[in-house]
Amino acid sequence: MPPPRKSVAIIGAGPAGLVAAKTLLQSRFDVTVFEKKSRVGGMWGVEPGGQGDFCSPDMPTNLSRFTVAFSDFDWTFVDVGPTGVPMFPKAWMVGRYLQAYADRYIPSEALKLESEVTSADLCPSGWRLSWKSAQEDTCTAEFDHLIVASGFFSKPCSPASAGQNPISIHSSQYRDLATLLPSSPREGAIVVVGGSISGIECAATVASHISDANWAPDAEKEAAFRYQLYHIASQPFYVLPRYLPTDPKPSRPTFLPIDLVIYDLTRRPDPVEPAGGLMPEDKAQKSHAFLAGLASGQPLPISADDKKLPSYIGISDTYAQHAAGGSVIPVRGRAAMSVSADGDLEVHSDTHSDTHSDTVTSIPNVIATIYATGFTASLSLSYLSPHVQSLLDLDPTCRRIPLLLEHHSTFAPRLPTLAFVGFYSGPYWAVMEAQSRLIAARWTGQTFPVPDIGLLQTIRTALHSNTPGVPQFWMGDYIGLVESMARSVGLSREALNPQIPPPDPLIPARYFTKPSESVLHTLRAFEHTITSAKEGAFLPAAVFANLQGRWSMRRTLVSALPGFPSGTFSGEAYFHTRQPTDTAFDSEYLYAEEGTLRTEMGLELRASKRYVYRYTEADRAVKLFFVKPDGRTVDYFFHEVGFEGKTTARECWVASGSHLCEADMYESEYEFWFEGAGLRRWCQKYMVKGPRKDYVSETWFSREKV
Fold it and tell me: Which keywords belong to this entry (predicted)?
C-alpha cells in the first residue's frame, strides 16, 4: 500500500505558483493553491482594454515566447485571436497562456481563488494557514509543506516625499498621458526617475505617447504638446532592442530575438556553472565590451572607471532613437526627493570617478514625476508569522535580498518544509520550473549538493555598505541557474538538430521530463526560427524599429526630361512614432522630411514631403502610404518593401519594391547598413517612368550612434 500523500499549500497562482502546483501534483502531492484574485496569472492576469495592477495589458514581454513559457506547454494551445501569438506576446496574452496552463494541469478543486492568506505559521503537523474566502469567511487548515509563490514584486517603492510633487506616480501605474496629466497642461517637464529595466522602458513609452499626441491625424496642429521628457539614471546603461544580431561585426547581421542571442550556450564552457557574488573588474570589462557591440545605443557616456563596474542594460526598441532625436533627455545622477516650490527638481551627479566633482543639474517646470524605483517584497511575506520571519533571517531593509535562501533562492536553511519559487528580482520561467523540480525532488527524499549561501550574504553586505560590484541582477545567470538545477535532479538538456546553425540558445522546452507533442512542436518551431533568421526573417522588424527618429539625408535627382529638374536635396527626415491608425497594422510612423533642393540650374527651393510607414508582424511587411493634404492622414497605398534576403557585393541587406502609381511605375531599391543592432545608414532609390516622368532619385540617410 503506497504511503499517504503529503499535502502542500502554495500561496499565489501566478506563473511561479502554477508551475509549482503542476510539478508537485505530478510528484503525487496533494496540492492546494491560494490566490487572492478572482483569476490565475498574478501580474499577468489582465485582459485587453483593462488597466492592470502592475503593467499595461498591451505591454510586450522583453523575452520571446520561447522563453516566456514552460517546458511542456506550447503557445499553440492559447487562443489570442486570428493573427496568432507574436514573437513577444503582450501581457494579456501571457495571462491567457497561464489560464490555459491551469486549465490543463491544475484541477479546479485544487485552486482556491478569491482566497487571501492572512497568516501562515508552524504547527506540529507542518503549517497552519488562515485565509479569508470570497464570502469573507475566515478559514483554517493544516498542511505538511508550504511554498511561497506570491511574487517578489508585491509593492511599488517610491520616495516617501513623492506625494509632495505636483503629480507623482510609480512607473507600474503609468498607462497614458491623459491619466498622468488629467488637466492637460501643454508644456512642462515630465521626469522619469530610475535607470534599470522599468525606467528605460517607461521613458521610451512616455516619449512615444508624446509623439503620438503631436502627430496623430486628429492632433491639434497649432496646439502641440511641448513637453520635455527627462530620464534620470544613477548609472550609464546600454539599450538593447528586442531583436539582436547574432554577430555584431558585419554590416549585414543575422537577427534573432534578444533571448536567443544573449542565452547562447556556445559562449559557455561545458559543464556550465552558475556565476554569483560580486563581479570582478575583468569580468565587468568583458561584459561592457560584449554589450557595446550589440547595443542600439549608449545614451549616457560610459567612462573607463564605469567599465570596471557591472554593466546595466535596458530593453527597448525605441529608447535609443528617442534619445538621439532629443525626445528623451538622459541625465546621470540622483534626483532630489521632491520638486521645489518653484517647480524645479535637482539632480546630483553620481559618477564612480575621483576626477569628477559633484555637480547639480536643475530641471525647471516639472509637472509630473514617474518613479521607476522598483518594488518591495514585503507584502509577499507579511502573512508569515514573526517566528517564521525570524527563522528566515528576514532583513526588511534590504529590498533586493530580503531573505538568504539556499539553492538559488529556493530553500530556507532552518525550515525544511518551506520553499520559495520565483522569489527574486527578475525571475525566469525556466528557473521557476527548475525550482519546482528541486522542491519535488527534495520532498520525495532525493538528496543533492546544496550551493553555499555565502555569496548571497556577500551581495547583501555589499548592498548595505554600497560596495561596488553588485550586478544589476544578482541572480541573472539564467544559463548557469537552469543548467545547475537540471543537473541536481538528473535532467539533461535536449540537443538541437546538428544541422541547425549557431547560436545554441537555452529555452525551457529543452529541459522536458518526458517527450510530448507539445514539446516536439515547440522544438520544431524553435529550430525553424533559428534557421529562418539566416534568410532575414527578422530583418523587417529590426529595420522598422531602427527607422524611428531623426536622420540626416542627401538626395540626388537625375531626370531624363527637361521639364523635371535634376539636382541635389539635403535636409533632415524624421520618423514620428504614433499609434497605428489602422488596426490591421502593429506599428506606424509619420515620415516628414524638410530641406533644400538645389537644381543643376542653380535654383534653391525649400521642399518637404510626408509619407506613412506601417509594419505588421504576422506577414513581416513594411508598407508605405501617401498622405492626404492635411499632412497626417493616410491616403492610398504607395508600395511594399520586399526583403528578399539578397546581398550586394558591399555586404548589406537589400530590399526592393514596385508599384504602379496612376500612370507612373515606381521601381524601388533599398540598402540597409547596420552597426551592431543599430541601423547607421540606409539608401532608398526610386526609378520612375511614366508619361511625364523619367527620373532616378537616390537618397542616403545616416546618423551617429547614440
Answer: FAD, Flavoprotein, Oxidoreductase
- What residue ranges in 86-195 does DSSP mark as E strands? 111-112, 116-123, 126-132, 138-143, 145-148, 155-156, 168-170, 187-193
Burial class from Cβ neighbours inside 10 Å (0-12, 13-18, 19+) for residue 584 reads exposed
Contact 323/706 with Cβ under 8 angstroms?
yes
Whole-angstrom distance, CA of residue 110 vs CA of residue 13: 11
- Cβ neighbours of residue 232 closer than 8 Å, sequence gap 6 or more: 191, 192, 193, 194, 195, 331, 332, 333, 334, 335, 347
The pLDDT tens digits of the residues spanning 277-306 come to 899 999 999 999 999 999 988 999 999 999
539-702 has the same fold as 158-241+296-373: no
Give the Å distances, CA to CA, from 417 to 12, 80, 116, 143, 144.
Answer: 17, 39, 21, 10, 7
At the topology level, CATH places domain 539-702 in: Lipocalin (2.40.128)
The fold for domain 158-241+296-373 equals FAD/NAD(P)-binding domain (3.50.50)
Q: Please, which residues bridge with residue 551 across strands?
A: 573
Q: What is the CATH number of domain 7-154+376-528?
A: 3.50.50.60
Residue pLDDT, tens place only, 522-560: 999 999 999 999 889 999 999 999 999 999 999 999 999
CA 390 to chain CA centroid, Å, is 36
Grid coordinates representing 416 are 525544511
Distances (CA, A) of 30 to 5, 22, 117, 637: 6, 11, 18, 60
> What is the Cα–Cα distance from 706 to 231, expressed in whole angstroms?
15
- Reference 140, options 131, 149, 148; nearest CA is 131
**Where are any strands of DSSP class E within 215-279?**
226-233, 238-240, 243-245, 255-257
The residues pairing with 694 across neighbouring beta strands, listed in sequence order, are 689
Pair 555, 573: CB distance under 8 Å = no
* pTM above threshold 0.90: yes
User: Which helix (H) or strand (E) element contains residue 363?
Assistant: strand 360-363
Domain range summary for the chain, segments of one domain joined by +: 7-154+376-528, 158-241+296-373, 539-702
User: Cα 496 to the chain's mean position, in Å?
Assistant: 26
CA distance 184 to 199: 23
* CA-based nearest residue to 147, from 110, 107, 109: 110
Rounded to whole angstroms, the Cα distance separating 451 from 220 reads 61
